[in-house]
Amino acid sequence: MTDIRWVKLASDIFKNRKITQIRDQTEGNDMALIWIQLMCLAADTNDCGLIYFSDNVPYTVEMLAVELKHPIERVGKALGLFTQFNMISIKENVISILNWEVYQNIEKLEIIKEYNRIKKQEQRAKQKKQSEIVVSKMSGTSQGSQDIELALDIAGSKKKVKEKSNKKESGQPLPKDSEEFPSYGIILGSEHLYPVEEENYNEDDSTMSSQCSLN
Question: Which of 5, 20, 77, 88 could form a Cys-Cys staple with 82, CB 3.0–4.6 A?
Answer without folding.
Answer: 88
